[in-house]
Specification:
The protein is of the alpha/beta class and about 140 residues long. It contains three helices and five strands. It starts with 19 loop residues before the first helix and ends in an 8-residue tail after the last strand.
Length: about 140
């Protein structure tokens, strides 16, 4: 015997939401969390060596400044070309190659800047950087 099923049709919209896909997504996220948490909390202890507490003075970069008049200033001391050669030779005596930062005033004569680079090259300075180049650019 078959029973007849009558569908009830109403004018109101259905207010129930199917939450099964939502629960499925939450369960997948929960499983992923359970699997990744032990990996994230695993740690390996490493004994790192203690370095010196302060930076050695020999590792600090030296600074060569060429002012507007074309005078050389090496580590805040005014020097002539011979004094610059002597100062560069003196810093080469260390166990590590010295680092030299060259900064030139925008109005300094180019010939003096070129002369400074020749002196630096003859002193075999291999770690050289140019500071303050943003003043050289006019847009």
């Amino acid at each position: 015997m078959a029973r007849a099923v009558r569908a009830v049709v109403t004018a109101e919209p259905m207010s129930a939401i199917n939450v099964t896909p939502f629960i499925d997504v939450l369960l997948v996220l929960l499983i992923m969390l359970i699997l990744t948490v032990p990996i994230a909390t695993h740690k390996v202890s490493i004994d790192l060596p203690n370095g010196p507490s302060s930076v050695a003075e020999a590792n600090l970069p030296h600074k060569l400044l060429i002012d507007r008049q074309g005078d050389f200033w090496f580590d805040a001391r005014k020097v002539d070309e011979a004094g610059l050669r002597q100062a560069l030779d003196a810093i080469q005596q260390g166990d590590q190659p010295p680092e030299l930062h060259v900064q030139s005033d925008p109005d300094a004569p180019y010939a003096r800047f070129d002369r400074a680079l020749v002196i630096v090259k003859r002193a075999n300075i291999t770690r050289l950087g140019f500071v303050g180049n943003e003043h050289m650019v006019d847009f």
